[in-house]
Amino acid sequence: MWYSNLYRRHLLDMHIEDWDEAFLSELDENKYVDNLKKADINYAMVYLQSHVGLCYYPTKLGSMHKAFEKDPWKMKRLVDACHKEGIKVCGYYSLIFNTREHDKHPQWQIVDENGFSIRRKKKQEAALQCSSSREARYGHICPNNPDQMKFVLGQIDEILDAFEVDAMFFDMPFWPDTCHCEHCEREYQRIYGRAVPRFGVEKPVYHLLSEEKKEEYRRLIRFKSEAMGKYVSKISAYVKSKRKDMPVEHNFAQAVAALAYSGCAEEVGEACDFVGGDLYGDIFNHSFSCKFFRAYSRNQPFEQMFSRCKPSLGSHTLTKTLDQMKISLASTMAHHGASLVIDAIDPVGTMDARLYEKLGQMFSLQKPYEKYFCGEMAEDIGIFVSLKSKIKMLLPDSRDCSVKFCSGLVQRHIPVSVVSPYSELEKHSFVAAPMLSVVDDKDAERLKSYVRDGGVLYISGFEAKELIGELTGHKLLGQTEENKVYFAPKEGAEEIFGGFNEKYPLPMGYSSPVVEAAEGARVLSVLKLPYTKPQDFDFASIHSDPPGILTDIPAITVNSYGKGIVIWAALPIEGEAYCEYTDLLLRLFKSLRELSFSFESLDAPSVVELTLFKNESFYTLNASLVSDVEKAFKLCPFTVRVKLDKAPREVLALGTGEKLDFNYSNGYLEFETPILDIFEMFRIDL
Fold this sequence. Notes:
By secondary structure, the chain is an alpha/beta fold. The protein is 28% helix and 23% strand. It is built from 16 helices and 31 strands. The protein has a nine-stranded mixed beta sheet with strand order 13-12-14-15-22-21-20-17-18, with helices on both faces. Strands 7-6-5-2-1-10-9-8 form an eight-stranded parallel beta sheet. Strands 11-24-25-31-27-28 form a six-stranded antiparallel beta sheet, covered by helices on one side. Helix 13 links the parallel strand 12 (381-384) and strand 13. The longest helix has 32 residues, at 211-242.
């Protein structure tokens, strides 16, 4: 597709009200495009409507922003000016978040069990000085309401009839709250034969629910995900009925960042030609989301958005340093994705031209490498992320565990990827499935098939009872009263545990499931409990709960399933950020199957991420700085090894053009890198 080689992207955030005649009055389409040119942008996302609900064109269905009353086609001229400069344009439209239509149409609102929308509740609380009025700014309309769907499709007609946009982007495809409107209640009753569940709090702690309530919770997650999937699929299909080949993207950020309660899951990704979204975590979260978006995108490149504001758009005049932006850019480059930088317009409609000089400098880092953004990514260890298992728990959920485990592997320079519904599980030496809870039949069968055919699967927790019970044969008996336990290695497993042993076991800060191990399972570790229970007045040590009571309750087991191996841990070892936990898992993997990773480095600093892409005639190895520092630092040369079937013809540092000396022996290419300054790509000619 035409977007496949456009990696320098931009969005000017324009959620601006119109109660002051000064708002957007100084918007100048020519200056806008001049700034894009300064930044060397080749793909611009342009607002045609916003969360406020105001349109930036003459709409017959909604409300046009007052700033455009005297010049209604300013944004059309902006789109045309972009095209004259060779810049492709993606039209922006906000779904669900539409404050103006929320206020006009009470029957469209997402409402709680008492019939109140979030905006209405927060406005009342603010009036009573119980809370800030900030949350009251956002009005949410229900995707299950057929009248609002008709309204959205009508506005899409208006946009596509008026603007020659090249793509469409739809924002906010998720549920900010559970809706109890008549349409949601009727649909839920039709599907499940009961009312939409009420939990007393919007996001209950899953572990504290009864089994009956847990099933209700899982049903509600499925309902929200499927309803949102149907909603965005209709929108995508409608756009394509008007413009057959027009790419459509729905913001997929909530699939990474939010709980499953949001309903932004696989179904939303399936309605996209490519996926992406705006995220605001640290650099390791950025790296993880790149892997996530790459795995879930049906077409490449995926789109990683980041704000120029520091730390996010809430700080309107505080801008990240050039090095901070380059580091974010480099992380996306290392995964061959497209970077979309988000700026925020001044309410009067002006832009800070100084920023665009800086963005031009930022993108100058990327331009020389863009033609090499191709190939198949090396993915030796796969992390199976269950989008419907991202639930509020008393311990890290599936998403938290996945990010921490991924970060640990990145820092150890081990090829790792996210496993999506489109991924081929069999190409991974190991697959980790952290803290699964809500698993559909299709995903369960994929995991079982992977192991049956000879794969090695690591799985933790016992919330996905049916799947884990079948894979391990273990029987769940209950839960420890203690909310801190220890994993004590059995005889013969001490080496896997490093310096931890029966007397000094590995600490885990949570209550653990109690299981009866299946016959034939190898128990590598058992639980060791503190001397006292949490409710006891007596204690052993005033500051902590040291290990005191050794049990025979399994903590880590290994068993066969078909031709493969299942490793089970009672608690998420992968959910701990410390090196001892990641290293334990790696030693465990290596004890079960010989490992030869696609690449490795014994002396690269942990602040370097390595990724490898394979093409028929060449490989590219990417090295990027992963650090949240404001001023980047250069890194001394380090050695990397790349697994190859034959000696390469040449190794070239593409940034400098330097040919590098190398050795090849025992199936591995070895070379020393030059000094690393944020990013470098090495081309290995075969």
